[in-house]
Amino acid sequence: MKLHVLGSGTAIPHPARGASGYALVEDGVACLIECGPGSTRRWPAAGIDFASARLIVVTHHHVDHCCDLPAVLFGRNVPEPPVRTPLALLGPESHGAHVAAIEAMYGRWVADRGGAREVVSMRDGDAYEAGPFRVDARVMLHSPGALGVRVTAGGRSLAFSGDSGPCDALVELCRGADLALLECSYPAARDVARHLTTKTAAEVAVRAGVSRLALTHFYPECDDVDVEAEVRAAGYRGALHLAEDGDVLQV
Questions:
Q1: pTM for this entry
Q2: For residue 44, what are the domain limits?
Q3: Which tens digits make up the pLDDT trace of 230-243?
Q4: Which one of 128, 168, 188, 209 is at 20 to 30 Å from 107 when CA atoms are compared?
């Protein structure tokens, strides 16, 4: 299972980092995690198209995580005939209402004309399977109902925090995963409860016994510090990767 980093940044414009977007690919099938604005432009480089994208997981409805979703629904209807590959749209408890609002705003251009689409609103502990993928959801410490997910395929697993502050559910999500992908919004000096910093991300990884850690979702403030040094100072000693747009990692 390969992890493609489509966007390692946030809603703040950055010369090298796009908004949140990731893709797991196994046996030619893609599970998209987040659908931030502009993330879909990196699909072709990752070998992803509308037919291969079988799942799109949106962890929460902040704009930097979900604003390309209408573009995906629109794009599936553009070809003639339209794309009819089954597509599961996974998200937090309010996801059904979110997709319904997109349909109300854009009408027939984003409609599921052939019944190929399923909307799945996930609560803490829910699981969903499609193609080679299993997605397990936990509710994180962020906006109400925001999810972290563990995605398993081919005997390998990725734990992804979504946006979250440090919490027991996140530690449990990461424990035993082959790769933990954690948001790292700010330097250690920032006092914040509902995001991770270099210090708190390291502390979560240590508590969970993570052996391979990738950090992402960097706000521009992280450009001004030595992120790796701050992570190491907080006690994490395992393999560490600082994500950049375009990275491809073997899970």
A1: 0.97
A2: 2-250
A3: 999 999 999 999 99
A4: 128
